[in-house]
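$ ./design --mode recover --in tokens.txt
reading tokens...
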């Protein structure tokens, strides 16, 4: 889906637009490198949660949490990176659990696209509810946005936290337990 040739041409145009010589030694291969980088960091466009929807028969109806999943994404407003950690809690449904790595892979499907953190959080939670027929899901995303750190208001050290909570995890005390465990029991 990602047209690397077109990206290369666009990057060459950007270099010309800022007054650079795209044929000088240090920039000669930059359009190709940038196109390759976009193909890698935006690989979520060529992927789908269906590719990572594996379930195993297992009688387990308690909460499962995978926390501190590192992610890198690109803000759709400025095409600058935002990055941080994703925490996923879910309660399996119908005596079926998924492989833990599948949770991180589904997060990557959505993180590796031009994104808004709020949308990404919701997409991850919805995919886990649907694909794994979960009884409940909580996704918490903590991120730093380069569009806030290196430009605009220039506020290094600021974090944005978003959450999406569905099903049984919306109810107390399950919600409180999930947040407590995500915070490391502190």
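writing sequence...
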């Amino acid at each position: 889906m990602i047209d690397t040739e077109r990206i290369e041409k666009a990057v060459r145009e950007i270099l010309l637009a800022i007054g650079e010589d795209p044929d000088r030694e240090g920039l000669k291969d930059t359009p190709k490198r940038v196109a390759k980088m976009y193909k890698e960091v935006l690989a979520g466009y060529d992927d789908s949660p269906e590719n990572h929807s594996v379930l195993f028969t297992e009688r387990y109806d308690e909460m499962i949490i995978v926390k501190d999943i590192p992610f890198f994404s690109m803000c759709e407003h400025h095409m600058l990176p935002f990055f941080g950690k994703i925490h996923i809690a879910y309660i399996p449904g119908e005596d079926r659990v998924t492989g833990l790595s599948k949770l991180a892979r589904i997060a990557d499907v959505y993180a590796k696209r031009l994104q808004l953190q709020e949308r990404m959080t919701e997409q991850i939670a919805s995919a886990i509810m649907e694909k794994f027929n979960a009884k409940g899901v909580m996704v918490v995303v903590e991120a730093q946005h380069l569009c806030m750190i290196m430009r605009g208001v220039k506020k290094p050290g600021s974090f944005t936290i978003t959450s999406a909570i569905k099903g049984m995890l919306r109810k107390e005390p399950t919600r409180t337990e999930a947040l407590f465990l995500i915070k490391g029991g502190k």
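exit 0
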